[in-house]
Amino acid sequence: MGIKGKKVRVEGMGCALSRADADGLAGALREGGYDVVGDEEEADAVIINGCTVREASDFKLREKIRKLRALGKEVIVTGCTAEANPYVATAAGAHLLPLSRRGDFFKGLAVPEPEIPSLLPPPPGGPIYVMPIGTGCGGSCTYCITKLARGRIASYPSRAVLSTVKRAIEGGAVEVDLTAVEINSWGKDTGESFPDLLRSLSALKGDFMIRVGMINPRSLLDWLDDLLDAFSGEKVFKFFHVPVQSFSDRVLKAMKRGYTASEAFEVITTIRRRYPEASIHTDIIVGFPGESEADFDETVDALKRLSFDKVNVARFSPRPLTEAASMEDQVSEGEKKRRTEVVTELWRRHALELNSQYLGKVVQCLIVEPRSPAALGRTANYKQVVLPGKLESGARVRALITRATPIDLRGEVAKDL
After folding, report:
1. Which residues of the chain are under the pLDDT cut of 50?
2. Contact by Cβ (8 Å): 289, 329
3. What is the SS3 assignment for 161?
4. Global pTM value
5. pLDDT, tens digit, for every residue of 16-67?
6. Which helix (H) or strand (E) holds 304?
7. Is the Cβ–Cβ distance between 8 and 29 less than 8 Å?
8. Which residues, in sequence order, are CB contacts of 195 under 8 Å at separation 6+?
9. Cα torsion through 235, 241, 242, 248, rounded to 10
10. pLDDT tens digits, residue range 173-232?
C-alpha cells in the first residue's frame, strides 16, 4: 500500500493510546520525508487511527471518511477499527492498514521502521506528552472489542520508555501521561513491574509531573500497597482512574471483570485512606445485558458512598464478535438513557461538592496549556484550574480559587502578601 502525494494528515480517534499511536505514525512519516500537515483540506491523504469501542465511534468514523472522500482525499484507516471491525472503514470507502501489517507499510514507503512495532511516538516538543508503555490486554471482558484489536499484553521495554520520556522532558514536556490498554498489566510478560517503572520515571531529572492512566481493579489488591508507595513521589499526580464498570456482583460476573464489587470498593477506599486529597475517576457501563433495576441500584448506592471526582458513564453498546452482543435480556435504549441521566446527575453533584471545598483557597498548580485568553493548570491531585491571562508552560503558580464547577476550578493568580 502506498500514499498518494507527499502531504499527509494523521489523526487519532478515541483513547489516549490511539492518539499517541497516531503521533507515532506522524513522526515516522515525517522522518521518511513526508510533509505531515494539520489541515485535512491541505492533505493529499488522511490516515486515521480509528476507534471502535462503541457504535457511536463507528458512526463518527464513517461520517469522517465520507466527508474526506467527497473532498477527493485518499483515506487510510488503521488502529483498532482496521484490526477488529474493518467493514466500518471499507464500506465508507477507506483503505485498511491493520496493526499487524505496519512493518510492510513502512518498508513500502521507504520509511524507517520504529524500534517497537506499535510505535513509541517521538517527543513533540509540547507541554503535554502522551507516553504509551505497551499494548494488549490481559482481561477477557465479554463486552470489549479492544482485545480483539490489540491482542495479548506486549509491554514496551523499560529502557525505551525511560529514554523516550527523557527526550520528551528535554523537549519541553511538563506533563507526561502514561497510557496503555491496562497500565497495571505492564511488565507481566517481561518480569518487570509497573510500580518500579513509575519510580524510575519519577527519578528522571527535570521539572515535570506524571499522570498515570487507567488502572484495572482486577488483581490490583495483590500489589496495591506497592503501587501506592510508588505514587508517593512528588512528581506523580495524585490521580487515579479506576474503571469499575459496575458495583453489582451479578453484572461484574457476566462482564468477566475478574473482581467483586466489594473488592473494587476496597481498592477505592484504600486509595482514599492513603491519599485523602486524591482525585479518583471511574467508568460505569449502564444497561449491560441482564442488568436489573436492583443491579443498577447497587451501583448507584456505591457511587453515593464513594463520591468519585468524575464518572465516565457509557450506555452498553454491543460490539461485533463479543460475547455480550448475543446475550439475552438486552436493556432498552430508553432505559439506558434514563440510567445514564441518573448517574450523570449524581456524579456531577458530588463533583461540584468536592470542588467547592477549594473556594477561597490558594492552591499550587503547574501550567500545562498556556492558552489565550486563559491558561490551564493542574494541581497536585490533577484538578484542572482555569486562569486568565497568558502564562508560560511549566510555570508553577499560586492560584486563588474563586469559582468551582463539576469539571474544573476557576481562579486568578494569587498576589503575594
Report:
1. 116-119, 417
2. yes
3. helix
4. 0.91
5. 888 888 887 887 788 778 888 888 889 999 999 998 888 889 999 999 999 9
6. helix 293-306
7. yes
8. 223, 226, 227, 229, 230
9. 150
10. 999 999 988 888 899 899 999 999 999 999 999 999 999 999 999 878 888 999 999 999
Cell (9 digits) for 76 = 487510510
Q: Which three cell numbers stand for residue 200?
A: 524510575
Q: What is the dihedral of CA 245, 249, 251, 254, to 10 degrees?
A: 110
The conformation of residue 121, written as its DSSP 8-state character, comes to: P
- ∠299-304-309 over CA atoms, to 5°? 100
Give me the phi and psi of 182, to 5 degrees please: -140, 110
H or E segment at 10? strand 7-12
Q: At what angle do helices 194-202 and 158-170 cross, to 10 degrees?
A: 30
For residue 14, CA distances in Å to 56, 60, 247, 279, 346 come to 11, 10, 25, 22, 25
Q: What grid cell was written down for 206?
A: 527535570
DSSP 214-283: B---TTGGGTHHHHHHHTTSTTB--EEE---B-S-HHHHHHHT-SS-HHHHHHHHHHHHHH-TT-EEEEE
